[in-house]
Amino acid sequence: MQILPSFFGFTSKVRGWSIATFRINKGISEITMLDVPKQRQWFQVKNKECGGVADPFLIKHNNRYYMFFEYEYKKPLYKDADIAYATSKDGINWTYKEKILEESFHQSFPYVFKMKGDFYMLPESYQSNQVRLYKAIDFPKKWILDTVLFEGKKLVDTIFLIKDSVYYWFTTNLNTSELLLFYSDSFKGTWVQHPCSPISKDISNNRNAGAIIEEENHYYRLAQDATEGYGSGVNLFGIEKISKQEYQEKLIKKPFLYKNKGMIKDALHHVSFLEEDEHIVAIDGANFAIRGIEIK
């Protein structure tokens, strides 16, 4: 999550995000706000340094659940956030562990996935002007920079989809607010801009809100909606066609999940979906008044 100029009218940086997880027996396209439990146990890191947690990514390994997230700092620093993780036995009740990726620049959106037996992380690191791929050498604690996939632009919230042995990379240019699409013929290969790129400049869908979800041979893209301010919700799109020549997506649900009340009164902008017999969903949310921030 990149902290943007406030749309509430105060001049300091917005803080106070939290994360909640819940289980559900529905596919991603069937979920509505009515399925989000009213009584959620919100995960927070309660220490003097941390001002909030956001951008959760869930993964299960050796019968244990892991959640990687953006760890925000309370005080203004030369950067706003780094990457940390928590563990759980049931996917609902979480124990904070530690920060695992600290760089000299802002980091968020820790997209963690497994590829050919290894764990990788693709965090947002726009201040470096690079898309940086990290590899776990001691999962989940120790990570090293493996490859710089792209450089020269401020790209945020990068995700990918593998289809017919081609890698398709979805990312947003922070300077132009364009959702871009690239492809490559290998996981760490050179990116080629897709002929349909940019996909969108619309603030209701031009920024990713989580990883691509594959369910019953269908692909879904989660998109941040900022039409009512940063973090106003998430919309759901189905990918209809994707090849080196074509790209087409269809709106499935708008709004999908959105700021509402309680701990998500002021913002919600990220969803993680872990497929199991009973799926686990993670969302982030913010209620700045609850966290003691005066809203003008």
From TrEMBL:
Q: Where is the Glucosamine inositolphosphorylceramide transferase 1 N-terminal domain?
A: 53-263
SUPFAM superfamilies attached to this UniProt entry? Arabinanase/levansucrase/invertase
Q: Name one Pfam family in it.
A: GINT1_N
Q: List the Gene3D superfamilies hit by this protein, alphabetically.
A: Glycosyl hydrolase domain, family 43
Annotated InterPro entries? Exostosin, GINT1_N, Glyco_hydro_beta-prop_sf
Please identify the protein, giving its name as recorded: Glucosamine inositolphosphorylceramide transferase 1 N-terminal domain-containing protein
Specify the species.
Answer: Asprobacillus argus
Its taxonomic placement starts with: Bacteria, Pseudomonadati, Bacteroidota, Flavobacteriia, Flavobacteriales
